């Protein structure tokens, strides 16, 4: 059995829908307020599980921390209801993580995160060895930056089992202090802004100037060039995959074997809320890789899945099932 494990955050999303974001000292009447289950870790685990066929011999697990409050119970229950193994989601004597989200009429969002119990998500070598026993079965681990030290986790995971495929989404982005850490990554999934910031950390002067010049003159061609460069910075022994999402334009898939290719985005009638779209795209990509789908097929599937999300309100609740995506692709 293939195992996909997500190590990351679980947050309660407090969402306000508004036509305008108030300035300093300004009060403005919003349109609506909702609460949703969220956090990049939860969204990715939920998306991965929901976007797999029911018949797939794949287990999805979540490793995380919640508070000993009602939010924590709701977050765990949401994952368990979707078939995600939550045995490694433990409670801390703290409030659960919270994300305050402002969604404008255009669908664009602004997010403030209070980590809460997520700040206690720290694994040592003994914990890694216990949670990830070495196996000959294919294994994927998804990480992002809504946790204390993803780089250290990657080091321990690779030391424990070099064959594990690490999928990394460096979001929210912060400067890479040790570029060698990218060499532990097998699947890098990143948006255009994060990719540009990452380039500043891992590319030398002339190479960075050249790729920035290309992005300035031809947006897609520039990111194709950047994807090709990043492929050589990540691990070349396993899946060696870079995906850069370009918002409404589409996405780029690259590896050493096939080079870099651009895929146009699905067109939608109206964008309602972009929250969770990137996490859904990531979950779809990793799930399709685990199913050994072709590049064209997995990119089409991920694009359709994320296009469904942006036409719905919320993050976790907006993620479609595998069956829904297939129906929409007909």
TrEMBL record:
Activity control: Activated by a monovalent cation that binds near, but not in, the active site. The most likely occupant of the site in vivo is potassium. Ion binding induces a conformational change that may alter substrate affinity.
Binding residues for substrate: 11-13, 39-43, 146, 279
All copies of domain Carbohydrate kinase PfkB, residue ranges: 2-321
GO cellular component, one term: nucleus
Annotated CDD domains: ribokinase (cd01174)
Pfam families, alphabetized: PfkB
Cofactor note (record): Requires a divalent cation, most likely magnesium in vivo, as an electrophilic catalyst to aid phosphoryl group transfer. It is the chelate of the metal and the nucleotide that is the actual substrate.
Gene3D superfamilies: 3.40.1190.20
UniProt keywords, alphabetically: ATP-binding, Carbohydrate metabolism, Cytoplasm, Kinase, Magnesium, Metal-binding, Nucleotide-binding, Nucleus, Potassium, Transferase
Chain positions recorded as K(+) binding sites: 273, 275, 309, 312, 314, 318
Binding site residues for ATP: 191, 245-250, 278-279
EC number, as in UniProt: 2.7.1.15
Any one GO biological process: D-ribose catabolic process
Active site: 279
Entry annotated with the keyword Kinase: yes
GO terms for MF: ATP binding; metal ion binding; ribokinase activity
EC supergroup of this enzyme: transferase
Requisite cofactors: Mg(2+)
Main subcellular location: cytoplasm
Cited PANTHER family: RIBOKINASE (PTHR10584:SF166), SUGAR KINASE (PTHR10584)
Family: Belongs to the carbohydrate kinase pfkB family. Belongs to the carbohydrate kinase PfkB family. Ribokinase subfamily.
Subunit structure: Homodimer.
Name recorded for this polypeptide: Ribokinase
Annotated gene: RBK1
